[in-house]
Amino acid sequence: MSGAGGAESSQYGFVGVRGRGYRPEQVEAAAAKLSGERDEAWERAARLTVLAKEMEEEVERLREAVANLAPQTYETLGKRAQYLLELAEEEDTAVRGAALADAQAEADAARAAADEARDDAQAHSDEVRGKAEEYAQRRIAAGQAEADDIRVSARRDVKEMRGEALAALREMRERTDAHLADQAKEHAERIEEADREAAEQVAASEAWEAGAVAEAEERLSEAKRVLGETEEEARHGQEDAEAAAAELLAQARARAERIERETESILSGHEEEREEMRSHMEHVRASLATLTGKASAEAE
């Protein structure tokens, strides 16, 4: 299992770094051996502790059994038999006492052995822990030194890269400013040209509108003249005048409608001036209607 900066962690929690200290496999083997010895010591201490407890229980059971025995008098026997029995009881008591003492001694010895094994296991565990901590401190110191070297090298590389990046950024900014200046100049020229073309189109449109209005007024004058002639001719001769007036009025209306259509067709491409021209044509139409109405009334 790998950690930060390329360090490796063993199954005993040791962090290894490359380049300094003992070889990791040697340390792992030594730690495994010490761990096995520690486990065996703990197991031996546990077995001795169980044995001592069992022997203590056996001694206590024997004590209780002896205490529960009723005293034997053997009064019915003879004096010699009683004497022999007393000797046997004394010997039994001595043997029983010796057995109890031996059992107690063995229990004490087992307890002492268990305590000693436990103390040995604890001492061995402390030794293993101390060696492991010492090894870990050495590895940490070595890793810190290597990390410091890497940090210094990284800072130096970052400083160099920052300088290169700033130089590239400065060059890019200069190229961008020059490009923007060229674009601004080009845009200004395009705007100037567009303004000039727009002014020319406005001037041409105004000239065309002036010509269209003049032509419309000229046609209106022509229509008025025709209507005047029609009115003059309508005064001479009743029947011929009515027929001629009707024909002339029809021609005048057709001509006025044609003029209106042509004028509206001419003005259809100019939306902004359409309202003004429509108003003017309404005036022309009203004038024609007035004239044609007057001519019809006079013809009747």
What's the number of helices?
4
Strand arrangement, major sheet: 1-2
The separation of the N and C termini measures 121 Å
Task: Give the biggest beta sheet.
Answer: 2 strands, antiparallel
The low-pLDDT segments are: 1-21
Structural class: mainly alpha
Rg calc: 66 Å
Q: How much is the average pLDDT? A: 68
Q: How much helix, percentage-wise, in residues?
A: over 70%
- SSE topology string: EEHHHH
Number of strands: 2
How would you name the oligomeric state of the polypeptide chains in this document?
Answer: single chain
Our count of domains comes out at 2
Write a structural description.
The protein is mainly α and 300 residues long. The chain has 2 domains: 4-172; 205-299. Helices cover 86% and strands 1% of the residues. It has 4 helices and 2 strands; from the N terminus they run E-E-H-H-H-H. It has helices at 24-68, 79-234, 239-267, 271-299, and strands spanning 8-9, 15-16. A two-stranded antiparallel sheet has the order 1-2. A hairpin with a 5-residue loop joins strand 1 (8-9) and strand 2. It is rod-shaped, with a radius of gyration of 66 Å.
Brief overview:
The protein has 300 residues and is mainly alpha-helical. Helix content is 86%, strand content 1%.
Topology:
Blueprint: E1 8-9, E2 15-16, H1 24-68, H2 79-234, H3 239-267, H4 271-299
Antiparallel strand pairs: 1-2
Keyword list:
single chain; 300 residues; mainly alpha; 2 domains; 4 helices; disordered N terminus
